[in-house]
Design goal:
The protein is built from 10 helices and 7 strands. With about 230 residues, it is α/β, with parallel strands linked by helices. The longest helix is centred in the C-terminal third of the chain and has 24 residues.
Length: about 230
Amino acid sequence: MNQYHDPALYRSRWRSRIRRLLQRGVFRSIVGSVVTQTISVHPSVHKVRGAFVLVANHSSHLDAPMLMQGLPIKQARYLSTGVAREYFFEVWYRRIFVRWMFNAFPIDRDGSKKNSGLSRRLLKAGVPILVFPEATRSTTGRMAEFKPGAAALATGVGTPVIPAALIGGHEAMPKGRNWPKPGKPPVGVVFGEPMRPFEGEVVTDFSARVQATVAELYESNYRTVMGEELSE
């Protein structure tokens, strides 16, 4: 079996301790030195145990670090995210960075399906995963339609979805930039109440409801984070 297909690798306690030090010590200090952070967590998020699917909008390279250092420690302990195998896992220094910083697992974007089903296997083993259902970073800051894969995963395995809205990422570090704009621009992440599909709710409807929740979290918290009204 491919070593990266072993769920035990993603639930290593000693690796999680080192990752927490990196994320909440070193990386939080770096991010905090270049942006002004706001983090809000719904109280019920603290009660989630075991696997879940963390779903968020995506417009900046700041997104994953903000989510992983903003989520409560117990819920973030084994949080894993899929990254492109071709770009990250086939170059040793990139692989080391994403494995240690983000507990990353490989996903295929070349149609090879070498790692097909890995996200589902991790969830079944109790490893929570981060998914950006838009599939790529927004170039405008506007949220694109969510693909239903995240909702399908959560529904199929029986795990909750934690919706999260990232605010200000595009303004601070839009696609194409490798470092945030000067002046410590505001960036926030808001974690909403965990969600499950209603009885009889089909995956596409659940996905649409998750997207609507993320959008509402974004809109209702925009002024708090950015200090101004959301423009139409």
